[in-house]
């Protein structure tokens, strides 16, 4: 199986069966994200305690890329410190912008690497980064 096929499979699985698409009863922080160019809309719900992202979930509608990206992100940031989560968001956004291409440097993005090729699809970049910008804004304001 080619690497692109593996990535397509990962994205398909996360968009069809997102593990983290639900309301979070214990949310301490809620942030809406909206992409007016395509109508993607998410509400990110986080439980942040003692500087740690204990839980993350989301609701909303959007294309397969935005939904998969949000689900992967929610999985990745659980158990991370606020600083680590924001660092991952910055790294992901840099990857999508094509600013970081070194595989080793990007390794900690785990399944989010499946979205790497979105960098070559300008129309889809906003779909991929919506959740990550929303996360960064949420954690910035959650002092």
From TrEMBL:
Residues 7-95 form the NIF system FeS cluster assembly NifU N-terminal domain. One of its GO terms (molecular function) is iron-sulfur cluster binding. GO terms for biological process: iron-sulfur cluster assembly. Pfam families: NifU_N (PF01592). NCBIfam families: SUF_scaf_2. Belongs to the NifU family. This is SUF system NifU family Fe-S cluster assembly protein.
């Amino acid at each position: 199986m080619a690497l692109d096929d593996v990535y397509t499979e990962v994205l398909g699985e996360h968009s069809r069966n997102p593990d983290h698409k639900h309301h979070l009863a214990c949310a301490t922080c809620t942030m809406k994200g909206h992409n007016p160019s395509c109508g993607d809309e998410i509400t990110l719900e986080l439980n942040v305690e003692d500087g740690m992202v204990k839980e993350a979930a989301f609701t909303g509608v959007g294309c397969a890329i935005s939904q998969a990206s949000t689900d992967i992100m929610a999985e990745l940031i659980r158990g991370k410190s606020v600083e680590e989560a924001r660092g991952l968001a910055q790294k992901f956004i840099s990857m999508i912008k094509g600013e970081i291409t070194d595989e080793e440097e990007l390794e900690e993005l785990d399944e989010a690497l499946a979205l790497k090729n979105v960098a070559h699809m300008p129309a889809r970049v906003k779909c991929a980064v919506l959740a990550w910008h929303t996360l960064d804004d949420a954690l910035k304001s959650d002092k």
